[in-house]
Amino acid sequence: MPRYDFRCRECGDTFELSRSMADSDAPADCPQGHDDTVRLLSTIAVGGRAAAPAPSGGGCCGGGCCG
Q1: What pLDDT, in 10s, does the model give residues 19-55?
Q2: In sequence order, what DSSP letters do the residues of 18-65 get, joined into one string?
Q3: pTM: predicted TM-score of the whole model, two decimal places
Q4: Rounded to whole angstroms, how far apart are CA atoms 16 and 28?
């Protein structure tokens, strides 16, 4: 089940909840009992190997083979 991050606007506490994607935008109560919360945008980490960066330079081939 996905996890979503929330922040309480009243006390500033940040907390995480596991809930279905269908309920991702449902209101969430702060662990301190406040109900003025907002869901935060989360970043995800993706494993794997990164490709080499594209060569920089001019021309149609990055400047490496253009005459």
Answers
A1: 999 998 899 999 999 999 999 987 766 676 766 666 6
A2: E--GGGTTS----TTS---EEEPP------SPPPPPPPPSSSTTTTSS
A3: 0.59
A4: 10
- Is the dihedral angle over the CA atoms 35, 45, 2, 24 positive or is it negative? positive
Beta-bridged to residue 38, according to DSSP, are 7
Sequence-distant (6+) residues with CB within 8 A of 67 are none
Return d(Cα 46, Cα 6) in angstroms, integer.
Answer: 22
d(C-alpha 13, C-alpha 34), whole Å: 10
Q: What's the distance, Cα to Cα, between the start and end of the chain in Å?
A: 55
Residues composing the chain: 67
